Amino acid sequence: MHQKILQIMLIVSFISACSNVGVKPWEKNILARDDMQLIHAPLEAGLDDHIYFSKEASSGGRGFSGGGCGCN
Amino acid sequence: MTHTLLFSIAFILITVSAQTVSADTATGKQNLPTSTLMTTGGPFSFSDYRGKVILIDFWASWCAPCRESFPWMNLMHQRYLDRGLTIIAINLDSEAPEATAFLKRNRADFSVIYDNEGLSAETMNVEAMPTSFLIDRKGILRHTLTGFTTSKESKHEALIKQLLNETIR
Question: Is B45 an 8 Å CB contact of chain A?
Fold first, then answer.
């Protein structure tokens, strides 16, 4: 019984896991930089998306650049 | 058995409440967390401004909405200085030259305090940039204004006016 309660407590303590990520709002100066944005040139990204969509029928899937081969 | 159950429920509630939710504008009478705010630029004492309505604004040069809020704060300063409004802007840039460069581009008619380490923001529990606190003539924290857009200007001005109209008895 006690063990079960202990298990429940352990699980519940994970609920707040990501509620505090450590970076305070006033410490986000580097994160706020233009080159730190996922898309820092919205117009260009939009045009690229259109090309991908019309040529390859694919869209979305942004969020990383390159596959680690150093070739792009 | 009931004891352990109650204990578990309490534990769950405490854990869940640890996740804070920030509101747009929080209103309610609250005592200030401290009477003297420590900043890297020196201590700031709220009691020096007793009898005045204080708008204390936390900003940084890299924060775009902060840039938008400066013309509005200048306007409020011009309009309500005579009626007892004091605007204090606390800068939270970690690099001081960035703040000075910002102030060259964006004029500030009100006083600016530098707090490079964010000690004051920690004390005031700033949850977003910018955050402004409206403190009434009695030194009670009345409104917490989180974030800034030009569409909020008239609403925020109304709150300032309301506090200015209150008198200390």
Answer: no
Average pLDDT over residues B106-114: 95
Backbone phi and psi for residue A42, each to the nearest 5 degrees, phi listed first: -60, -35
Residue B114 near chain A (CB below 8 Å): no
Q: Which DSSP state fits A69?
A: S
Token pair belonging to B69: 């809020």
Distance from CA of A36 to the nearest CA of B (A): 12
Distance CA B21, CA B165 (A): 31
What residue in B sits closest to A29 (Cα-Cα)? B62
Q: Is 0.90 exceeded by the ipTM?
A: no
Quote the percentage of chain B above a pLDDT of 70.
91
Q: Domains in chain B, please, with CATH?
A: 2-165 (3.40.30.10)
Q: H or E stretch including B60?
A: none
| Distance (Å) of CA B96 to CA B71, B99, B128, B169 | 21, 5, 20, 42
pTM over 0.90: no
